[in-house]
Amino acid sequence: QVQLVESGGGLVQPGGSLRLSCAASGFTFSSYDMGWFRQAPGKEREFVAVISWNGGHTDYVDSVKGRFTISRDNAKNTVHLQMNSLKPEDTAVYYCTRRRLGGKYDYWGQGTQVTVSS
Question: What is the pLDDT of residues 19-35, one digit of tens each?
């Protein structure tokens, strides 16, 4: 079965960095676009970034452009989110997700907490 397992979250000071990882299994990873979403307390889940199946195309929500970088390693079935210059408003649970043909996100990990605070 499809499994997505996130790791790398934690507590970091404003201006700091974290690198999230998502280990995928149960499907042909290199055939799917992969994405990251986040959900802050009291808010709806929002799109953060997506990367195409071969890594050739990426897209980001405006609020993280220039600070976050999504990447993938198809040999290791992993997708990463490098987060730099973190701000308190980046505090959220971050979720890894698979995007199927047609654009819908169909499988989700359990999430990893990122807290940006001094």
Answer: 999 999 999 999 999 99
List strands edge to edge, sheet with 3-7.
3-7, 18-25, 78-83, 68-73
Other CB atoms within 10 A of residue 105 CB: 18
DSSP tag of 101? T
Token code pair at residue 11:
């507590």
Per-residue confidence at 102, pLDDT binned at 50, 70, 90? confident
In contact, 68 and 60? CB cutoff 8 Å: yes
Strand partners, 114: 10, 92
